[in-house]
Structure formats: C-alpha cells, structure tokens
TrEMBL record:
Gene3D superfamilies: Dihydrodipicolinate Reductase, domain 2, NAD(P)-binding Rossmann-like Domain. This is Gfo/Idh/MocA family oxidoreductase. One of its GO terms (molecular function) is nucleotide binding. Residues 161-230 form the GFO/IDH/MocA-like oxidoreductase domain. It comes from Natrarchaeobius chitinivorans. Transmembrane segments: none annotated. It holds the Pfam family GFO_IDH_MocA. Residues 13-128 form the Gfo/Idh/MocA-like oxidoreductase N-terminal domain.
Length: 334
C-alpha cells in the first residue's frame, strides 16, 4: 500500500461510490452524512444517474479512473457479474473497497480478490448488511452463553419488482446463511435443500455438529417477514430484523387454574426484552468500514467470511435447481 493511502492523520477519509443504483445511492447518502468522511464523487455506467445522485448529495459525477485517483476508499455496488473486474481495478489503484454481497460470481474470483487485497495491504469488506442490524448484534453477544439446539431464519415477501428474475438463494438466503455461520462461528457439515415455484421459494437445512439450522427464502409470500429464532436449552430467542427487536422466553411452565369452579389450563413463560440500540444497519456498516480503513484493522465482514457464504449458497442453489419441486437432496461437505 502506497504511503499516501495509509491513514496516519486525522483528515477526513475520502470516499466514493461506484454504481449508484438503489443500493449505491443509499451508500452515497450515508457517506454524505458521516463525520470525518468526504464524499468526493460517484461513478455509474449511466452518466445521467451519476449526475442526479451527485447533485442530490453535494458531490461530483466522475469517470471511474478520476474517482479512484481522488479516493482512499470506495463502495462498489455494481451488478454481481461486474464485481471481480471492478473491485480488482479499485484494489490495483490502491483504494480500499466495500463490495456489496455476494462477493463475486464465483468462489475462485472471490479468492483472487481476497489475495489481491491482502497483498496490497488494503481493506476488502463485503456488504453482508444484516451483521450490522442492532438486533443481530445483540444476539451475537448472548449466544456464547447459550447451549444452542437449533436456529431458524425466515426471509419472506413479494418481489419489489415482479418482473425481476432475482435468485432467492443468492439475493435473499445468503444473508441468513452468513448470519447463522457467524453466530455459530462454524461452517455447515451437511446441507439439504429444496425449492419450488421456479426457484422463487427455497428452504435449506444445515447441520453444524449437534446444531441444526433451517433457512427459508421466498419472493412469493404476501407478507414481508425477516425473523430469526434461536432454540437453546436455557431459552428461546426471537429476533425481528425489521422491528430490530429481541425477545427471550425463559422458564416456560404449564399451570392449571380454578375459576368459578372450572379448571383452566394456561402456559406461561418469563419474557425478557434486552436493550437493542436501534439504528440504520447501513450506517453502522459504513462507519465500521471507515474505521477499518482509518485504523488498518480487520473488517467486521472479511472477504473470507463472504467466500464461505458464497460456497454454501452455491451448494444450496445446486440442490434447489437440480431437482424438481418438492424433492430435496442432501450433500455432505465435510
């Protein structure tokens, strides 16, 4: 890494965004709001889009080469098929990168990107944004003290654009695959999976030793659901990603009551509501990235984390797409 790219002063970090579609524009918005950060420009294959976003957030629309000359760090939010070429170009220019998930189209590309960043001494963070959801961060602090039996994640809802052909395994399920692996600090030993409705609904079951994790993703469910349930011997933990809430159910017990001569049955439990410091996950993610750039520390979501998630979802997708609906296969991945 060249000396001018090393963050040894307190000057603002100079950042840019490559690709300012819906997600990239949000990155530009948050960068423009962060302290000690200077949004020096945005780039996009559509110059009109780049100019509109630049005007909205008080910066410049630049060609990519000029943007990289001005930046210490960039977000890459281009389509997945362009991740490898775009990220490599940024890293070769000595610029730190946060790239949206999945890290690349192939595991091999992801590994090459990781090697390139490591050799250059640059930060390569991957945008698995749910890691920065305050509710998930709260659970990650609890889980080490639990004897976990199972995890169940649901990411359901209708598509925003019903003409979009997005793959639910790569677009949606990858979030929860990464969350489960990070909470358990492990990779799955075996995977079974099935799908239906032309791959718009998929579910997988993964084993992590004595722990079982089930993850479901859907673009056909007429209600938006983003939930995680952790079953442990001590308690049941319910996480709502949308509400950014955590409920812990403990000491569940049955009880019979006598009311007006009639016996009634009820089941009670103690419910705890741990404090969750709510906030925008994207803001937490970009603050974390900027801190890693400034200090040279390892990012919260490393390239290796993202490569592991990509390997897992590729196995899941092969099982989902390789069989007729309602039939599943299992693969051992020891």
């Amino acid at each position: 890494m060249s000396p001018e790219r090393t963050m040894t002063t307190s000057r603002p970090i100079r950042v840019g965004v490559v690709g300012v579609g819906a997600m990239g524009e949000n990155h530009a918005r948050v960068y423009s709001e962060l302290r000690d950060v200077d949004l020096v420009g945005v780039a996009d294959h559509d110059p009109d889009v780049a100019r509109r976003v630049a005007t909205e957030y008080g910066t410049e629309a630049l060609e990519m080469e000029r943007l990289l000359e001005r930046c210490d760090a960039v977000t890459v939010a281009v389509p997945t098929h362009a991740h490898y070429e775009t990220v490599s170009r940024c890293l070769e220019s000595g610029v730190h990168v946060l790239v949206e998930k999945p890290i690349a189209e192939t595991v091999e590309q992801g590994r090459k990107m990781a090697t390139l960043a490591r050799t250059a001494g640059l930060v390569l963070q991957v945008g698995h944004i749910e890691r920065f959801n305050p509710a998930v961060q709260t659970v990650s602090e609890l889980i080490d003290d639990l004897d976990v039996i199972s995890l169940e994640a649901e990411r359901l809802g209708p598509p925003i654009d019903r003409t979009a052909p997005g793959n639910v395994v790569f677009d949606l399920m990858v979030h929860d695959v990464d969350i489960v692996a990070s909470l358990l600090d492990d990779d799955p030993e075996s995977i079974s999976a099935m799908g239906t409705d032309d791959g718009r609904y998929a579910t997988t079951t993964m084993s992590f030793g004595d722990v079982v994790a089930t993850v479901t993703a859907s673009r056909v469910t007429q209600k938006k659901v983003r939930k995680l349930t952790v079953t442990a011997r001590e308690c049941l933990v319910e996480v709502d990603y949308l509400e950014q809430s955590v409920l812990i159910h403990r000491d569940s017990y049955p009880e019979y009551l006598v009311d007006d001569g009639q016996r009634r049955y009820r089941h009670e439990s103690v419910v705890e509501r741990p404090r969750v410091d709510n906030g925008e996950p994207l803001r937490h993610e970009l603050e974390s990235f900027v801190e890693a750039v400034r200090t040279g520390s390892e990012p919260t979501v490393t390239a290796e984390d993202a490569i592991d998630a990509l390997e897992t979802v590729k196995r899941i997708d092969a099982l989902v797409s390789g069989e007729k609906p309602r039939r599943g296969r299992e693969v051992e991945i020891r």
